[in-house]
Amino acid sequence: MSQNDGTSGKLDKLLAEQREYIAKRERGYRERALKMYPWVCGRCAREFTRSNLRELTVHHVDHDHDNNPADGSNWELLCVYCHDEEHRKFEAYVRYGSSTEKRREAATHNPFAGLREALENKNADDDPN
Ligand SMILES: [Zn+2]
Ligand SMILES: [Zn+2]
Fold first, then answer.
1. CB burial class (10 A; 0-12, 13-18, 19+) of residue 12?
2. Residue 15 C-alpha to ligand 2 middle, in angstroms?
C-alpha cells in the first residue's frame, strides 16, 4: 500500500518543474541579450570578457521578467553592482514614490513570488528560505 505519495511529492515535482522552467527561460534571454549587446555595463561602462561574464547580468528595463521582446528592447546589460543599485532605486521609488498602494512586493523581483505564495497557503510553516 502506498500511503506517502500524496501532495508533498507532487509539490516537489511542481517546484522542480517551475525551477527548471525559470532557469531555462533565464538562460534563453541571457544568451540572446549577450549576443545582441556588447559586453559592457550600461551604467559604469565596465567591460566584460568570458572570464568574468557571470558578473554581467540582464536587467529588465520595466522590471517585468516575463516581458522579453525579441528585439531586446526590455533588456539592459548591467554589472551585478549597478544592477543591484538599479533595483534599490526602483524599490525606493515604489516604496516612497507617489503610489502608496504599491508596496515592496512589486519591487522585489523574485521569480518565485507567486510560487511561494502558493506554498505558503499549502504549507505555512515550511518556508524553503
Ligand atoms: Zn556597472
Ligand atoms: Zn533587474
1. exposed
2. 23
